Amino acid sequence: MNRYVIAALVENKYGVLARVSGLFMRRGFNIDSLTVGETDDPEFSRITITLHGDDYVRTQIINQLKKLYNVKYVEELEQDNSVERELMLAKVANSPENRSEVMAAAEIYRAKIIDYNPRTLCVEVTGEPAKINAFIDVLKPLGIIELCRTGVVALERGASITDQ
Amino acid sequence: MKTAKMTGARIVIETLIEQGITDVFGYPGSQVLDIYDELYKAGDRLHHYLTAHEQGAAHAADGYSRVTGKVGVVIATSGPGATNLVTGIATAMLDSIPMVIITGNVATSLIGRDSFQEINITGITMPITKHNYFVSDVNELADTIREAFQIAKSGRPGPVLVDIPKDVQVAECEFAPVGIMPCFEQHEASDSLIDEAVSMLNNAERPYIYIGGGAAGSDMTDSIIALAEKIDAYIGCTFMGLSVIPTAYERFLGMQGMHGLYASSMANREADVILGVGVRFSDRATGNLSDYAPHAKIIQLDTDLAEINKNVQVDVGIIGNIVSSFMRIMMRCEKRFHPDWTDQINAFKAKGREIRKIAEATMGSGISPKTLFDHINEIKTNDTVISTDVGQHQMWTAQYVRFAEPRRFASSGGLGTMGYGLGASIGAHIGSGSRVVLITGDGSFGMNLNELATAVTYNIPVTIIVMNNGVLGMVHQWQTYFYDKRYSATSLAARKTDFVKVAEGFGLPGKKVSTIDEFRSAFAEGYAHEGPFLIDAVIDSDELVLPMMPPGGAGDDIITLRSDNY
After folding, report:
1. C-alpha to C-alpha distance for B76 and B104, rounded to whole angstroms
2. What ipTM, to 2 d.p.?
3. Do the domains at A2-77 and A83-149 have one common CATH topology?
4. Domain-by-domain residue ranges, chain A?
5. Per-residue model confidence (pLDDT) at position B362
6. Which CATH number is A2-77 given?
7. Least CB–CB distance from B306: residue in A19, A26, A67
8. In B362-420, where does DSSP find H-type helix?
9. Is A15's CB within 8 Å of B151's CB?
10. Residues of B classed as catalytic
11. Across B287-347, where does the E strand assignment appear?
12. Domain chopping of chain B, boundaries
């Protein structure tokens, strides 16, 4: 099982996300994350998909995506030629016993404390998924109350695919 | 015609006419009243055929498309009208049949409120259409329908649905007709891929051309025969590839696969180069994939890039317009002779005949499928369209019916839709003007026999042969072989349906026959009859479709005898 990152430029239209996610369901493709957001051109959105699978699944996902009429461009992002980031927000218990540990961990992981109240702390961190996972492992024993990740966004290094 | 202001409903009709459409199938309802009002006014330019049920209309549009190659068009109202189309749309999707489906919906102000007869048909049909649209602005209506036609017929064809809410049908905007939309341009395969395929074929000792629905939809009969002659290859087909090559052609070995003919299955197995043309290597045609074509290099021509390597890992995958890829290959192939291969094929043919003889000798009493089809073959003209439902009768049709011309076969291959045949027969006649013979079973026919009303309305010259064995034969056969004869829910013996009376009730003549002589005389009468005619032909309930390759089987697993396991 390999990890793949696939980027797709899609028309920013009614039902496009349903078409893309429906395709994965219909073909039985299990994906790890899917993110979607408008691009600099409001007519297009960009979808980033990460998945674990074999070469067959990767090729089928790319080729089946290309058949959707609202999908304008599909590309696999090679891991060593692209940058990936994910954002995570986590709410952890704020108690005299763990407060300094949370803040120390946040410092090391370059996370920010973005909310503070007598009972909880909210931290924000960005990075590659591995870094986020490691940070979660650190926070877990300190008492995670709520956690939320965006899923991966990624860009190829060098020329942007939207230009093509 | 210059630009004129018109309603959305009128634009629907004018756009259909502009796209070259002369016939539509459908069923009215409250949310398409405006469209039907415009149909009424345009009656001399666009013919509408009213069916008994929306599913029948969808199958009619599908059958129309299969025999003409044109885009089939169906219109239905919102809610149940639209959901009744679903099986028909899925049938077209799985067999890559170009269709445009127009549905009405409630006004945009009522959308999302579970209004009366409101259903999200674009959501429902997303996985079973090539693409679909919900039109919320009348200004986009004409271009949306035009694009729907373009998508339906371009590349790998398929159904496209356009859902139009009531207020968009009523709203007005400027409209000016344009010409028939061209197909999207297709990718042309690189010369190096073509050369690779050519060198494989030039070096082949045992070449086999394996054709499917893609070849049928691209009208490739002559070019396939020409290549087979040039490189001394033999041709076999999938179920969807039937009727492309005349059955009598000596290089044609027939359908391969689960109920295929021995010679084509063996040619596929023993070939050293297989040229797949518009095939998707479906499980029913290949059997066990791990043991599929063990000696062969495989070349696959397809317009759909996702089909390459989907089911079978191929050596050369050529994506693009299959006609042009095929022609480019043919131009560069050298003339070849393979006398050893011909000897081998002749041996397969002889063994195949032997197997058939054994299988046929063990057939039950009464009208045997073989004699029934022998008689149909003897009488039917070359341009007669054969349509079927799904089950044993369908496989017998595939094995026995002799085709002489392309686009003379309408049957649900991929989805396997029982109840497809009668609607499709009606559409096939309307499209081609040809006589139709519908082969069906008592199970399948029971599903949509309401379309007899339509066949009578339009006086469709269809000879309906109900192969009545009192069981759901194909499932019964599987229960016989794989479920130790536990016949769960496959007996129809308790039904008291009198198909002749049913026919008479609908207003067409019918005959019940239980011997082959009775069948001959009934068929003579039915086939000469101007309109629809039904023959209820009694078949032994233990009749089997043989030979049979069990699911997941390969090579020697083939069941040839009623007594194997029985």
Report:
1. 7
2. 0.85
3. yes
4. 2-77, 83-149
5. 63
6. 3.30.70.260
7. A67
8. 369-379, 392-400
9. no
10. 54, 116-117, 166, 474
11. 297-302, 316-319
12. 4-175, 191-348, 364-543
| Structure confidence by residue, pLDDT tens digits, B34-86 | 999 999 999 899 999 999 999 999 999 999 999 999 999 999 999 999 999 99
Pick from B156, B153, B215, B154: nearest CA to B185: B154
CA distances from A75 to A5, A7, A31, A49, A59 (A): 9, 5, 16, 10, 11
Task: Determine, for residues B309 and A59 on separate chains, whether the beta-carbon distance falls below 8 Å.
Answer: yes
Neighbours of B453 (CB within 10 A): 17
Q: Closest Cα to residue B108, out of B96, B98, B118, B99? A: B118
Question: Taking Cα atoms as reference points, which of B326, B336, B310, B339 lies closest to residue B197?
Answer: B326
CATH 3.40.50.970 at B4-175, yes or no: yes
Q: How many Å apart are CA B330 and CA B322, to the nearest integer?
A: 12
- Window 4-63 of A: residues touching B by CB (8 A cutoff) are 14-15, 18-19, 22-23, 26, 56, 59-60, 63
- As given in the structure block, the two tokens for residue B344 are 């081998």
With contact defined as beta carbons under 8 Å apart, do A8 and A65 qualify? yes
Chain centroid, CA B146 distance in Å: 25
User: A83-149, superfamily in CATH?
Assistant: ACT-like. Chain A, domain 2 (3.30.70.1150)
Predicted TM-score (pTM) of the model is: 0.94
Find tokens 């409101």 and name the residue.
B118
Q: Per the CB < 8 Å rule, is B151 touching A69?
A: yes
Single-letter amino acid, residue B33: L
The CATH architecture that domain B364-543 belongs to is: 3-Layer(aba) Sandwich (3.40)
> CA dist B88 to B28, B61, B100, Å?
17, 9, 12
Q: Per-residue confidence of chain B (566 residues) as pLDDT tens digits?
A: 579 999 999 999 999 999 999 999 999 999 999 999 999 999 899 999 999 999 999 999 999 999 999 999 999 999 999 999 999 999 999 999 999 999 999 999 999 999 999 999 999 999 999 999 999 999 999 999 999 999 999 999 999 999 999 999 999 999 999 999 999 998 899 999 999 999 999 999 999 999 999 999 999 999 999 999 999 999 999 999 999 999 999 999 999 988 999 899 999 999 999 999 999 998 888 888 888 888 999 999 999 999 999 999 999 999 999 999 999 999 999 999 999 999 999 999 999 998 888 877 766 667 999 999 999 999 999 999 999 999 999 999 999 999 999 999 999 999 999 999 999 999 999 999 999 999 999 999 999 999 999 999 999 999 999 999 999 999 999 999 899 999 999 999 999 999 999 999 999 999 999 999 999 999 999 999 999 999 999 999 888 898 888 777 766 677 776 654 44
Tell whether omega for the bond before A129 is within 30 degrees of 0, i.e. cis.
no
Q: What is the CATH number of domain B191-348?
A: 3.40.50.1220
Q: Hey, are the CB atoms on B122 and A69 less than 8 Å from each other?
A: no
